Amino acid sequence: MARLDQVITNIVDIFMEYADDGGKKRQLNKEELKKLFEQEIQSPDLKDKISAGDIEEAMDMLDKNHDGEVNFREFCRCVCVLAKCYFQKKTGRGGKRGKGKGQEGEEEEG
Question: How many Å apart are CA 44 and CA 33, to the nearest integer?
Fold first, then answer.
């Protein structure tokens, strides 16, 4: 299987494994999300961005429809944010938004 295929199937499989652990099927409650963070995020570069200890803040950030659980779309947003943070760390970029990002003469956000 190609690497991107594997990454996509892993994201879906991990979500479904933890979402079916208890509570509503196909949604992560607070305990499931905490367990997922504890077991599936091991990299120090990512752990300092979002961790099981920050579960209340994580739920507030991820639960966009305020139903007390994280659906797959909300979970994908989290994965995307973590991927962006990792990319920024590897490239040294600040993640400035907008067109012309990274062009000469622009100041980096600090």
Answer: 18
